[in-house]
C-alpha cells in the first residue's frame, strides 16, 4: 500500500509540473513557418526602434519565422535586401497567464548558432492572439515614462 501511495504521489507530482493543455495546443498551432507581416505602435509618430536588439521595424517586416515547439527553438530570417539579411536563432518559452482570455507571456532569447548557447538577454512579449493562420505578439516598453506598445502581426505560410 505504501508503494502504491508513493507511486501515485510521484505520478501526480510529474503531471502537476507538466505543461498545461492550453500551452501544448498553442505550441502545436505555432509549429511551422510564419511571416511577420506588420509591426505597429500604440502611439502615432516616427520612432527609431530596434527590435530584439537586432534591427529596425522596416527590416523585420516580411521576415520569415520558423518555430520548432518540441525543443522550444526557432529561427527568423531577415529578407529585406537593404538590411543585414540572414537567419538568426532563438529559444522560446510560452508561460500561461490567463486560461479564460488565452493570453500568455512569451519569452524569446536569441542564441549563438555556433555555440548553441543563449545570450544573456531575453525579450518578454505577450502572445495576444493565436489562430491556425494568424498570430499576434505585443511588447510594452516605456517611452518618456509612459507605456508604449509594439504589436507584431504574423501570418502562417
Task: Break the fold down into its secondary structure elements and pairings.
Layout: H1 2-17, H2 21-30, E1 32-41, E2 50-51, E3 55-56, H3 57-60, E4 64-68, E5 73-78, E6 86-98, E7 103-112, E8 117-118, E9 123-130, E10 134-143, E11 146-156
Antiparallel strand pairs: 1-4, 1-11, 2-3, 4-5, 5-6, 6-7, 7-8, 7-9, 9-10, 10-11
Report on this structure:
The chain has 157 residues and is α+β, with helices and mostly antiparallel strands. It has a single domain, classed as Beta Barrel (Lipocalin). It is built from three helices and eleven strands, in the order ααβββαββββββββ. The strands form two sheets. It has an eight-stranded antiparallel β-barrel with strand order 1-4-5-6-7-9-10-11. Strands 2-3 form a two-stranded antiparallel ribbon. The radius of gyration is 18 Å and the shape is globular.
Q: Give the spatial strand order of the biggest sheet.
A: 1-4-5-6-7-9-10-11
Structural class: alpha+beta
Helix share, percent: 10-25%
What is the N-to-C succession of helices and strands?
A: HHEEEHEEEEEEEE
Contiguous uncertain segments of 5+ residues: 1-18
Give the CATH architecture.
Answer: Beta Barrel
Q: Supply the CATH class.
A: Mainly Beta
| Largest beta-sheet details | 8 strands, antiparallel, barrel
Q: How many β-strand stretches?
A: 11
Rg, alpha carbons: 18 Å
- Per DSSP, what share of the residues sits in E-state strands of 2 or more residues? over 45%
Number of helices: 3
Distance between the termini: 54 Å
Number of domains: 1
CATH topology: Lipocalin
Average the pLDDT over all residues and give the rounded result. 81
Q: How would you describe the shape? A: globular
Protein name: Lipocalin family protein
InterPro entries: Lipocalin-like (IPR024311)
Domain Lipocalin-like: 30-97
Organism: Gaetbulibacter aquiaggeris
Amino acid at each position: 500500500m505504501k508503494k502504491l501511495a508513493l507511486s501515485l504521489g510521484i505520478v501526480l507530482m510529474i503531471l502537476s509540473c507538466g505543461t498545461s493543455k492550453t500551452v501544448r495546443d498553442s505550441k502545436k498551432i505555432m509549429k511551422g513557418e510564419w511571416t511577420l507581416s506588420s509591426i505597429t505602435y500604440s502611439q502615432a509618430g516616427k520612432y527609431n526602434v530596434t527590435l530584439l536588439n537586432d534591427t529596425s521595424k522596416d527590416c523585420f517586416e516580411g521576415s520569415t519565422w520558423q518555430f520548432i515547439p518540441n525543443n522550444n527553438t526557432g529561427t527568423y530570417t531577415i529578407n529585406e535586401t537593404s538590411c543585414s539579411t540572414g537567419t538568426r536563432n532563438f529559444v522560446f518559452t510560452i508561460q500561461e497567464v490567463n486560461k479564460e482570455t488565452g493570453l500568455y507571456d512569451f519569452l524569446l532569447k536569441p542564441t549563438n548558432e555556433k555555440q548553441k548557447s543563449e545570450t544573456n538577454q531575453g525579450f518578454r512579449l505577450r502572445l495576444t492572439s493565436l489562430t491556425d493562420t494568424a498570430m499576434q505578439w505585443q511588447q510594452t516598453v516605456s517611452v518618456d515614462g509612459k507605456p508604449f506598445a509594439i504589436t507584431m502581426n504574423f501570418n502562417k505560410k
